[in-house]
Amino acid sequence: MRYETPATIEAAVGLIAAETGIARVLSGGTDLLVQLKAGMIEPDLVVDLKRIAATREITAEAGGFRIGSAVSAASLREHKALRAAWPGIIEGLKLIGSTQVQGRATLTGNLCNASPAADSVPCLVAAGASARIVGPSGKRDIPVQDVPAGPGRTNLAKGELVESIFIPAAAAHTGSCYLRFTPRTEMDIAVVSAGVSVTLDASGTCTAACIVLGAVAARVTIAEEAAKAIIGTKVDEAALAKMQAAASAAATPIDDKRGTKEFRIEVAGVLARRAVEKALERARGK
Amino acid sequence: MSKITVSATVNGDAADFVCDATETLLDVLRDRLGLTGAKEGCGTGDCGACSVILNDRLVCACLVLGAEAQGAKIETVEGLANGETLHPLQRKFIEHAALQCGVCTPGFLVAAKSLIDHNPDPTEEQVRYWLAGNLCRCTGYDKIVRAVLDAAAEMREANHAA
Amino acid sequence: MPLDAKPGMDFKVIGTRPVRPDGIDKVTGRARFGADFNMPGQLTGRVLRSPHAHARVKSIDVSQALKLQGVKAVVTRDDFNADAVDPALMDVLVNVMARDKVLYEGHAVAAVAAVDAPTARQALKLIKVDYEILPHVTDVEEAMKPSAPVLHADMFTDGVEPRPTKASNIASRVEFGHGDVEAGFQQADVIVEREFRTEAAHQGYIEPHAVVASMGADGYAEMWCCTQGHFMVRNISAHLNGVDVSKLRVTASEIGGGFGGKTTVFLEPVALALSRKANRPVKLVMTRDEVFRASGPTSSSYVKVKIGAKKDGTITGAYAELAYQGGAFRGSPVDMGAMCTYACYDLKNVQVVGYDVVVNRPKQAAYRAPGAPQAAFGVESVIDELAQKLGMDPIDLRLKNAARDGTKSSYGPTFGPNGLIQTLEAAKNHPNYKVKLGPHQGRGVAVGFWFNFGGQTAVSMNVNIDGSIALAVGTPDIGGSRASMGLMAAEELGIAYDKVRTIVADTASLGFNDVTEGSRVTFSSGLATVQAARDAIKKMCGRAAQMWGIPEDAVEWKDGHAHPAGANAGNFPPMSLADIAKDAGNTGGPIAGHCEVNAEGAGISFATHLVDVEVDPQTGRTQVLRYTVIQDAGKAIHPTYVEGQYQGGAAQGVGWALNEEYIYGKDGRLQNAGFLDYRIPVCSDLPMIDTVIIEVPNPGHPYGVRGVGETGIVPPLGAVGNAVSHACGHRMTVVPMSPPRSLKAIKG
User: Fold this and answer.
1) Which of A19, A169, A274, C508 has the fewest beta carbons closer than 10 A?
2) DSSP of C11-71, one letter per residue?
3) Has residue C286 got a pLDDT over 60?
4) Do C647 and B93 touch (CB under 8 A)?
5) Mean pLDDT to the nearest integer, C431-440
6) What angle do helix axes B142-161 and B88-95 make, rounded to 10 degrees?
7) pLDDT tens, C633-663?
């Protein structure tokens, strides 16, 4: 295995595009090193992005935030403006592994590891975030939900990598929240999760909502019917009940060591509702 | 396999080493630098026994490549005491019997130091959540949490007095 | 040994809370654990393990591995001479290196020693094993069915008359009890009968197994390893490798947790074999994955309980049936489980039947009070349900039927003085028992019992020239026992605690010591330490007598000094231990005390636990709100470490009760071999754990000590089960009570 530390994104792309064997990008390494340890992968080349200055930066852009691919979860948690705009994204970051893991883990890594249970992804999707992909043929932006192709697989082409993630500005009276279910309080993988964003108008009517479920399908699930159940309403009890049922209905999970299908369907609705209630509180507080 | 040459600072001292690309920082600390305080309990970031502070961030040394340490500042349990004088956390761990077998202790001490560096006045809940990545199987955590809270209080008092 | 510690005896050192002698080493990173030791020229070893749950090993071809540059040795079954192995150790041999079959996923089939870890890993890939896959069974109830795949063609159930002629997976049947249970049930006004199941839990010590072995062609060998019993490691490793026990010296490293899981061998005989073949030191360290797949978790179980009682709460009959799987070999702790099942109760009519069952899982190893928690889960749940049906307080129901001094136990012996009643009364009066509960909250009570062991013990105590003491014990210190030994030595000698240095001696320096297990160390090594101190005192009195020119029996020992034993003995100023030590060279040479004993008189220990939980009615998730452990320690030598044992046992029990379990796929492979998915409690999962130490002295120990390590894990499954059952409004019968199971219970 070769270990390379290119100084520019272009050089990084050049390295991975030129590699004839298996190439892996290293940012936080909290998934990559586990896979190496288990012998799941034996890459010929590992390209560490952290020596590229831009990957370590959080920059303001169009009222939103551009997050370099090597910014750690711990750094993001300390970013006051991001915390204020998108508390749900921060809640997701706070649940990735442990304090130690958050010292290294990145948004981009969490996204590109392509686990349907990734804690930071549902709220990124709910926030309308996009990933900037750079490759031999240039740059393109795609919605974050289009990066994972399925568990452990991405839609990135050979030689491509994610350079940064863009999180747009939050509209006025928007609240977000991320909740997950795990048997332990910490150090766990989501059995089911819900990341939501809710926007209200001045009268308290919901004008926009996005409800995203994790760990209930091969990729995160955007529960459109659930969002429709509250859009245009004052998000009263009837709308919430309808939303909860729709969220459960949108879940298409499997039975595995972490939970049963039946349990995940039930709890997907519960979490969606609790997350929406919390997001509403936040939207109303603004 | 060609080796990689790395220069880092470990507990304030320059440390130069060579390693394979696949070696973790934990492997390097234990096998190349002779610092066996950090333990491998799992090798997958799930137990915290290898906790070290890397450029002021608490990390699991098993989830860092040795090669990544180029130019980095690393703090391990071996650097906590100042000569004969134990760090307040070390003293309080002994006084509170916050260790039974002691294999998780270096990781807890480093993690707790990182907590107090970030938050000198943590609540019990903050201590428990910050340390959730450090597994202890002997104590049920009770005496560990008490030791950390007590050490933090003592350090606040010392700072206040100073 | 008679009790010479009178209640209220004026201890000077015992019961204080000094810092431990290994404290600074352990907070500075200097303490050396199993994997922290290296030898010059050392090779790295790795073990090849079976990917199959059950298969015949048709052939093993290591030729390609041996050709790899840097590989120095490969061992397989052919490197161990099974014909020369004691039949009683044959299962141990087969477990450390598979022979004709692999019996579980993770079963060792070969091992390599190479110049570094990458080479060793590469070498494993070059070993070709030809397997013939066989049907497997991992569930205890499935394994008992006549149609189940049979693991051992020569296993015919012991303890059944007539002996079966057909091989099965039931290794043995045991039975304990007295009276007539059927007659007892006829007298009952209320009978509760239920079935319970518990999944297998792992000890979850944070330090993986590790060993460094160095053996020359002449058979002389050194070994360093993390174990609860280095004498056991020496005897077994030497025997399996066909060398004299005296040629192998084993040093116990600091041990990073054991809880019973390090009371046997896994890597050690293999490391020795590799070292001999390579003629270089070899280090073997398990990965966490290997620890889960290939060391010993505890048994999973099926437990049926039936208890009948009169309206006033008097239990008239109690029956239980236990089936424990012990992994791929006979020896599950069902016998101890059956003995403990009803040990907390004073019963006229009681019967317990147990079955030891084999399945395609790793060989179980002891786990804190092995066998007791599973049975206690069933019994304590049924007692709780009886209390509900009778409208009685669950503590009152237990008090009415509790074992006491003079109770004929369900497994035979008649109990002496013990503290069960005191723990129950303390529980009833504890403030935590009076806290008002909120919605979705429940309170659970349970009691538990453990025998506590004695066993073979040797201690050596050297009086140094400056009056300090070198105390050598042979029982690895897994939780602060060096501090306790130092306290007992100081107490008996009448000197300060910090004048005693206690070490765990290697196997060449001390007589044989049984493993650190069964909560035996503070009792047995403590008893031996006191005896050794008395031996040294006798010699010191002799030296004083010599110097004073009076008869030896005219000298007595008080407060660390030799005194003339009365006015007739002469008028000499007292001579301190240090004074006598200083002149030892002129009065007969070195002064040492010894004790070699098979310690008897271990004292039983009981506990009562209280727990409050809250269960999320929409997700089934359980949060422990408060937890209280009340246990009889006999005498707490170092109270802080006694509390630590109580808290640790409770935390492990809570983990087992709520989330820990071995999950097997249909393919017979373990699905959660890591700390991420084998969920031991993390810091934020638990509240502070309150403790109350009851002291009812054990007449069998000079200071009244009872073992304290194990009883603490016996009540939690039942206590948490009762609390969750009340919070959910549904009786929980499966451990762990994971969220999906609890949610299902709530939803009905």
Assistant:
1) C508
2) -SSTT--PPPTTHHHHHHT-S-BGGG---TTPEEEEEEE-SSSSEEEEEEE-HHHHHSTTE
3) yes
4) no
5) 98
6) 140
7) 999 999 999 999 999 999 999 999 999 999 9
Tell me if C81 sits within 8 A of C98, measured CB to CB. no
Per CATH, domain B88-161 is 1.10.760.10: no
Phi, psi of A192 (to 5 degrees): -160, 150
CB C605 within 8 A of CB B100: no
d(Cα C340, Cα C475) in Å, to the nearest integer?
25
Amino acid at A137: S
Arithmetic mean of pLDDT, A215-239 = 98
Contact B68 A72 (CB under 8 A): no
Residue type, C689: I
Would you call A34 and B44 a contact, using CB atoms and an 8 Å cutoff?
A: yes
Place of tokens 């920059």: A59
> Are C245 and C129 contained in the same domain?
yes
Chain B contact for C121 (CB, 8 A cutoff): no
Residues C390-423 as b/e (b if ≥16 CB within 10 A, e otherwise) read: bebebbebbbbbbbeeebbbbbeeebebbbbbbb
Q: Residue C5's pLDDT band (boundaries 50, 70, 90)?
A: very low
pLDDT exceeds 70 at position B147: yes
Residues C580 and C648 in one domain: no
Pair A271, A179: CB distance under 8 Å:
yes
Query: Chains meeting C at 3+ CB pairs closer than 8 A?
Result: A, B
More confidently predicted of C6 and A212: A212
Q: Tell me, what's the pLDDT at C707?
A: 94
Contact C396, C581 (CB under 8 A): no
Q: How confident is the model at residue C742 (pLDDT cuts 50, 70, 90)?
A: very high
Tell me the average pLDDT of chain B: 97
Q: What is the mean pLDDT of residues B131-153?
A: 98
Can you tell me the distance from the alpha carbon of C491 to that of C530, in angstroms, rounded to the nearest whole number?
A: 9
Domain B4-79 in this protein, CATH class: alpha beta
ipTM: 0.98
Q: Which of B135, B142, B145 to mutate to test the interface with C (most CBs of C within 10 A)?
A: B142
C679 lies within 8 A of chain A by CB: yes
Flag whether residue A55 sits within 8 Å of chain B, measured between CB atoms. Answer: no
Q: d(Cα C357, Cα C335) in Å, to the nearest integer?
A: 12
Q: Which of C599, C617, C650 is the last residue of a domain?
A: C599
Distance from CA of A186 to the nearest CA of B (A): 6
Q: Which domain holds residue C617?
A: 417-450+603-747
What residue ranges of chain B are covered by domains with CATH 3.10.20.30?
Answer: 4-79
Residue limits of CATH 1.10.150.120 in chain B: 88-161
Residue A286: pLDDT band (50, 70, 90) is low
User: What pLDDT, on a 0 to 100 scale, did the predictor assign at position C569?
Assistant: 86
In chain B, which residues have their Cβ closer than 8 Å to the Cβ of C22? Answer: 102
Q: What is the pLDDT of residue C8?
A: 54
- Provide mean pLDDT across the span C289-318: 98
Token pair, residue C358, equals: 């084999």
**Could you read off the pLDDT of A85-123 as tens digits, one per residue?**
999 999 999 999 999 999 999 999 999 999 999 999 999
Question: How far is residue B26's CA from residue B66's CA, in Å, rounded to a whole number?
Answer: 8
Q: Measure C616 CA to nearest chain A CA, in Å.
A: 11
Q: Based on the fold, state whether residues C717 and C692 are members of the same structural domain.
A: yes
Residue C390 belongs to some domain of the structure: no
Which residues in chain C (627-656) have CB-CB distances under 8 A to chain B? 640-641, 643-644, 647-648, 650-652
Of the candidates B36, B37, B49, which has its C-beta nearest C206's C-beta? B49
Q: Do residues C731 and C671 lie in contact, with contact meaning Cβ atoms separated by under 8 Å?
A: no
Q: Which fold has domain A174-285?
A: Enolase-like; domain 1 (3.30.390)
With tokens 């069915």, the residue in question is C145
